[in-house]
Prior knowledge:
This protein is mainly alpha-helical.
Amino acid sequence: MNGLKRAISHFGSQASLARRLGVVPMAVSHWLKRQRIPPHQAIAIERATNGAVRREELRPDIFGPMDIPQTDTTPVVQKAGDQA
């Protein structure tokens, strides 16, 4: 849950992060204790930190791990007689 701690550090305190997200400070404390953030709050934290803390870091189980490069997986269709 390093990402949440970095978000708290970014805003200076749990209370400041909570204020920015429009939640009570107890919610942030609960996330720390459970080591789980609601997906919509992971997106909100990413936006509030201008991408300094990414949603993938906060919830890799939903948004995927950060180390997977985003590539185009569209299959290439070849015509008969074309060479690869």
